[in-house]
Amino acid sequence: MNSIELKSRAKINLSIDVLGKRPDGYHLVEMIMQTIDLFDIIKIFSLDEDKIIISSNSKEIPTDSSNIVYKAANLIKKEFDIKKGIEIYIDKNIPVAAGMAGGSSNAAAILVGLSKLWDLNLSNDELKKLGLKLGADVPFCIEGEASLAENIGEKLTNIDGLSEDVFILVCKPELFVSTKEVYEAVDSKVIEKRPDNKLLIQLLKENNIELLSKNMYNVLESVTKEKYPVIDEIKNTMIDNKALGAMMSGSGPTVFGLYSNKDDAEKCKKILLENFKQVYLVKSHKKGVEING
Ligand code: ATP
Fold it and tell me: pLDDT (tens digit, 9 = 90+) per residue, 110-133?
């Protein structure tokens, strides 16, 4: 095998709670993660020469060793003492620095892809262990579907996710949010409201999308919103246009709304596209990373 192509899917959060901070700076969280069918395509080609070359259609991501896919490839090379090289092409569709784990998902795809390309036959658990060295969200991206993520986000419990009859409208405003700054701001304030994750997990099990939509909660949202009121504008547009509920994903600035009616979702998508470029109507998906073909 000389090349491999993978789908690398984004996630949204149906809840985020921050419980504390470890001495090493990582935050202790309790959050519900859901894979959605919005993906980048990752192409990996074998090279005889021992080097890692990256290119992309996106100008928003680096193509040098600071790209997380470089770090993922280098990790596998070092871990298994592999002297071969690769060329990686990232066809970016997932909004960058958006709270949708785009980078983490790409890293997950490289680990899965190289395990196959180089016949390493790594198990899911081995892949997730390696992934954690690259970022707290990488194990979830390898696992996919829906999980309650605890500790620093790597302790995953598989749960029922959003059913495929739910329409997920995603809108990313054009502004840059620093995840680090959002978490720092959360540290310096008292969290007055938190999500009830047990309830949300039960509502997902019952496929009670109406109540789920009303109970989704992200403790990071109020912090990001203070600086960027456009997040509330998007939420209000979704709610005014019949979304069952709307919330910010991750540390933002992406906002998503849940719909049970496709026409309502399509109508709101059109309205949002008048003011925002990155608007997508998608569904949930079971696989975070998928080998094409
Ligand atoms: P996460 O939840 O994993 O933090 P995010 O959606 O908040 O994801 P990313 O899209 O992963 O954020 O981007 C975060 C930063 O990482 C950006 O500044 C981006 O330039 C950089 N980056 C490096 N490699 C990648 C990559 N392959 N894809 C996206 N961003 C990357």
Answer: 999 999 999 999 999 999 999 999
* Beta bridge mates, 36: 284
Task: Convert the pLDDT of each residue in 233-284 to its tens digit.
Answer: 999 999 999 999 999 999 999 999 999 999 999 999 999 999 999 999 999 9
At 74, the amino acid letter reads N
**Cα torsion for 283, 289, 291, 293, to the nearest 10°?**
0
Largest CA distance in the chain: 56
- Nearest atom within ligand 1 for CA of residue 96: 10
**Structure tokens belonging to residue 281:** 């109507």
Residue 138 Cβ < 6 Å to ligand 1: no
| Nearest-angstrom CA–CA distance, 8 and 92 | 10
* Ligand 1 within 6 A of CB of 250: yes
Given a contact cutoff of 8 angstroms between Cβ atoms, the answer to whether 12 and 256 are in contact is: yes
